[in-house]
Design brief:
Deoxyribonuclease I, Chain A; alpha+beta; elongated; 6-stranded mixed sheet; 12 helices
Amino acid sequence: MCFVRPCVAGVPGRTDTSRFRRGTKAGRRVIRHIHTVCGGRLRYEGHQLGVNGDNLVYIFDDILRNPSSSLKVSDEPCEALPIPTFIQNRVKRIDYPNSRNDSNLSRPKIFDLNTSYGTDAVCKINTRITYGKPRKVGMENRIQTLTKVKLKNIRPSSKLFSLSSLNCRSVKNKSLSICDYILTEDLDLVALTETWLGSSVDEAVVNELKPSCYEIIRQDRNSGRRGGGIALVFKNGIDVTVLNTSSDIFTQFEHLKVTVRIEDMRMNLCIIYRPPPSTVNGLTTSQFFSEWDTYLDQNTIFPQDLVITGDFNFHVDNRSDPEASRLLQSLDDRNLIQHVDEPTHVHGHILDLLITRSSSEILHSRHQVKNPSLSDVKGNLCCDHYAIHATFNCRKPQHHRKEITFRRLKNINIYDMSRDIKNQLQDESARNENTSVDHLVQGYNKCLSHILNTHAPLVSKSILIRANTEWYTDELRTAKQQKRKTERRWRRSKLEIHHQLFKAECKQTGQLLHKAKEEFYSTKIQEFRYDLKNFFRVTNLLMGKNQESPLPTSPSDEDLANKFSTFS
């Protein structure tokens, strides 16, 4: 048994098959063929059989068994009649003739779930007519030929270990924008090339570049030439060890090699930046390939997973380029594969690469090439490279925690504490009337420590180290949401007008980003202009200066005090 609709919109005898719409997708009156229920292609004279939730009629079994008979319609309500379940024979499919004559169509085989069938009876089950996807209903009588398939447990990409590689072309004018980009994407590793760092005034830039819960490893250019430089920004909970760089051996490219350990995964990460050869820098392509072959031979002999990324400045997308073909051939000779197949430069070329072993399964899914939308202080977009995003088959590291101890001094009852001090000191003085000064000092210290621990005991607490985004405003968050919305619209439509709207949103968001931080710390400095301790704390934080203690190291405070007392 099944339900069909021989009339349209409640008008009996009407054969019009046009679609009706009420303004929303859920309100459409769409005629659905009967094969949505039983898998058949059934047609009757003068009617197109279909299903609609507003007007269902009941068809008896004899109509299905005898298609040549006239259409019989029951006046009984649909709620009083059960809807049976059918299974179509899809292994031995029925070949319908090419003729459109309904009399030539063979009737498909219909099976009931309550009957036992052979191995040919399979798989399409519908127990109810609904709009959209059919609802899953448990079957009491399962067919033995149906096999249960175990699906692989797929982790959401947001919980996987992530890496981003980007040529930022100087971080000095876009350090705050890079920091916001790292936090927005929740990246674990960020490989930066062309950092242009190395001067004595770059500590403030580095402090603004990395979020508060991240660390940075730098490999600045030390040849005296402007530009270049490599950096790796990573979360605190990741074990990163710098290996021997051998910078004196390789002069044609800059590189940084580290070992990354997280959970059970261990990989060697190599970050490469190859400057374009010119008469000014004296670099040549032939010397590069000579050193590049040596570099690959040194790093491919290790059994760990190998990931090489960075800016190679070869047009890998141009297969007719002999230099790019030679680079790809050097990778293929060592069982390495280059994954990037989308432009990573605004001019449409592939310059930034992501390389792994051909047999490695370290990557979880296909990489993504994204526009980081980095902006300068004025909000102008100033990055000509796109970022490469890759996820690995490993979970993200847990957030870094720190153990702190403190006393709740504000909760002390001053009256009770002063009374205890008075009573304890009187008793202590009575017991130590004839003792030396050293014994009296020790007794007083012990007495006062006991009283302090009674009224304000030490409390230990584990805190979660998070990025410092206290200067984010609601206006900035709204602007970032609007920017992501316009970006999705542009990626769907590929229209230039939507691209221009996205660039305008990026500029506005960049301006608000710098404005929010500037206003926040200006207010802090104005507030602490008479509080020198907090004033210098804020300024040292902005300048990236380490707040080290000026006192010399000592195993204990008592030894330090004795050293001062004997100093001459």
